[in-house]
Amino acid sequence: MNRRSFIKQASWGTALVSSGAFPMEILNNPELTKLTILHTNDVHSRVEPFPMDGGKYQGLGGAERRAALVETIRAKEANVLLLDSGDIFQGTPYFNFFGGELEFKLMSAMKYDASTLGNHDFDEGLEGLYKQLPHADFPFVISNYDFSDTEMHQKTKPYHIFQREDIKIGVLGIGIELEGLVPKTLYGNTRYLDPIERANHFATILKNDEKCDYVICLSHLGFEYENAKVSDKVLAANSQNIDLILGGHTHTFMDAPARVMNKQQKEVLVHQAGWAGIVLGRIDVYFERNFKNRCVSCKNVLVK
């Protein structure tokens, strides 16, 4: 199937409808297929909602509420992907006590489709991460960490392909440089590879060889920096064949995705859903069979 070109991309479904940029008739088009992408990042072992202590996020978040939201959305939508952009571990006593077992079991119960790795996912070392993998019923995608000389060898994959009706979606992962951020004793002989080169390499495989209709990069690089450090925005600008970057690390709350022009002068969407499971990110992509349209709307869901 070839759904390569598009005429419009926009954010916030209500704004699209009211502005006329996203005509109502497209919703009734029998040739249209809708993909709903749900995403989290930097949940940091926040299993329970924030306590009612007068804090900024009091009462928000919690795995049970997120699971209920995901279940509600799945009941309404035919084609759903649930993804995470890393830093699953660290931040509450649940991690200190269970070492990540509970977090992976909860994600498995919610039927996450894939996740990448963040720097805090190494906080119990490679051995600790390896130990918890049997509790994760979903793949970890990471394209720029070489684990060949570690116990994590062949426990991750550079990308994974999903089929939702007649839509083929490729998902790859990109991690942040661990040196200077994580003690060497925790990541051992993990080799860090160039994130832009690796992202483009596997995105091109997904688009050209695997014939994916849509390519998503799960990134833990961080949204943007004041210095020259590689970020999601830098990756997007230097990318090819990536349609959407779902980021993490900088705990950035975004009402709508940023739009960045890539090396092919095509628009890449970059989005992040804050941290601690306070927000469930949601992006709906509408594919049209006549090859002319691919429209995008975004509306995050507050977990409360």
Notes on the protein architecture:
By secondary structure, this protein is of the alpha/beta class. The chain has a single domain, classed as Purple Acid Phosphatase, chain A, domain 2. The chain contains 8 helices and 14 strands. The strands form 3 sheets. Strands 1, 2, 3, 12, 13 and 14 form a 6-stranded mixed beta sheet that branches. The chain has a 6-stranded mixed beta sheet with strand order 5-6-8-9-11-10. It has a two-stranded antiparallel ribbon with strand order 4-7. α2 links the parallel β1 and β2. The termini are far apart. The N terminus is likely disordered.
Provide the fold topology.
Layout: H1 13-19, E1 32-40, H2 63-76, E2 80-84, H3 93-98, H4 101-109, E3 114-115, H5 125-132, E4 145-146, E5 159-164, E6 167-174, H6 184-187, E7 191-192, H7 195-209, E8 214-219, H8 232-237, E9 244-246, E10 258-261, E11 267-271, E12 279-288, E13 294-298, E14 301-302
Parallel strand pairs: 1-2, 2-3, 6-8, 8-9, 9-11
Antiparallel strand pairs: 1-12, 4-7, 5-6, 10-11, 12-13, 12-14
